[in-house]
Amino acid sequence: MSLTTKRALAESFRKLLSKRGLDKITVKDIVEDCGVNRQTFYYHFHDIYDLLEWVLKDTAEKLLSQEADYSDWTAGLESVMEFIQENRILVLNAYNSISHETLADDIKQCLRPYTSELVQSQARDMDRPVAQEDLDFVTDIFTLTASGFIMEWIGKNLKREDTTRRLERFRAAANGSVRFMLQNLAGDPAQT
Q1: DSSP string, 83-134
Q2: Distance between CA 24 and CA 17 in Å, rounded?
Q3: What is the model's pLDDT at position 192?
Q4: Other CB atoms within 10 Å distance of the CB of residue 189
Q5: Are 97 and 23 in contact, with CB atoms under 8 Å apart?
Q6: Contact, 89 vs 47, CB < 8 A?
Q7: Domains in the chain, ordered, with CATH?
Q8: What is the structure's pLDDT at 69?
Q9: Cα angle 130-133-137, degrees, rounded to a multiple of 5
């Protein structure tokens, strides 16, 4: 029941956010749309920003869990960008209503588990074990790169014509780079 209620609150929030900015939405608006009371909202979320963070994480988990192959790490990024494009108004309302740093942090939190799994999958195939510090460092690099890529694209009002071209360039630039970075950090003699 609890997850069902959270999802219902999230759906009401998404519906409202697709019509107006985050700063124009109140808890009262959400609970009235959802048909629950304020106490129910506060049982699940501290405030609207907590709800926004949960919505982003929940959506990212669904999108990125579909990309279980990890052979092309930009496939997950492409899924996220397609979702953002399909929910353009909602995303732009959030982007224009909260600090960009907050949204970027939320996007990084959403992407990190995916990039971490991707980096670890590349490390499993290496001849030498990779230190956790190196795994974390490469994960941070790719998480920051992907979130920066998404934030810049959102800041340019999600121009569709830029999406495919930029994603293809990004894919070409990133191809093989996770393994290359891990090998360099591990001091793999075959790569020096």
Answers
A1: HHHHTHHHHHHHHHHS-HHHHHHHHHHHHHHHHHHHHHHHHHTSSS---HHH
A2: 9
A3: 43
A4: 9
A5: yes
A6: no
A7: 51-191 (1.10.357.10)
A8: 57
A9: 100
The one-letter amino acid code at 95 reads Y
Residue 127 tokens, joined: 């001849």
Confidence (pTM): 0.74
Long-range contacts of 56-65 (CB under 8 A, 24+ apart): 56/106, 56/107, 56/109, 56/110, 57/106, 57/109, 57/110, 58/7, 58/10, 59/83, 59/110, 60/110, 60/111, 60/114, 61/110, 61/113, 64/110, 64/111, 64/113, 64/114
Query: Tokens for 21?
Result: 């900015």
Tokens of 181: 């970075």
Amino acid at 140: D
Q: Calculate the alpha carbon distances from 41 to 30, 36, 60, 172 in Å.
A: 8, 8, 22, 45
pLDDT score recorded for residue 154 = 84
**Average pLDDT along the chain, 192 residues, taken 10 residues at a time:** 86 90 90 95 93 82 65 72 80 79 84 87 85 94 89 79 76 83 77 46
Q: Are 12 and 30 in contact (CB under 8 A)?
A: yes
